[in-house]
Amino acid sequence: MATQKIKRGYRKTRYILYKETLIDFKEQFWSFLGSFVGIGILSYIQTKHFSGNDAVYLIGSFGASSVLVYGIIQSPFSQPRNLIGGHLISAFIGVSVNYLIPNTVWIAAPLAVSLSIVFMQITKTLHPPGGATALIAIIGSEKIKSLGYWYLVSPTLVGVFILFVTALIFNNMTPSRQYPSHSTYHKYYHKIRKRLTKQ
């Protein structure tokens, strides 16, 4: 009996490892293209409006979001509610903590990240890069800190919106990819798409 369980477990493990090591070139192509265009648009806006090291539109957490919304599109963390809500909640908490505890990074940084996690859990908008968005509001450049609550609008909302729209376009170009993965969202997306193509 124990031997059968071990053999069954071994077969399952081999199958999972086999599936995980398969290379799907089409999937990788669309992941590359979507992330390239999404981050490319943000980079273009950045270079047109800001010079030097003032990376205001191009915050680091958008790179991590790109991995999720273009590379692991079926993940619950990748869905629109999580992408948009997670970043906005975390940005708000990061800026608020920075106002309350402006010069004590060793308290402000962990507090902002921890509160972001809890509030994302409460609102069911958990998006791992959101923690970085909160942290950037604390440890970012003076240019970012001087934005105050405008940090929620630009770069956070603007950047997230660009990533989201790009994900909608590139993640739905083939029948094998569906974004958002929730059937209700997808049904509405296809209705809108049909109406637009008829016109």
UniProtKB/TrEMBL annotation:
The keyword Phosphoprotein does not apply. InterPro entries: HPP, TM_HPP. Keywords: Membrane, Transmembrane, Transmembrane helix. The keyword Transferase does not apply. Residues 23-180 form the HPP transmembrane region domain. The chain crosses the membrane at residues 29-49, 55-73, 82-101, 147-170. This is HPP family protein. It comes from Flavobacterium agrisoli.
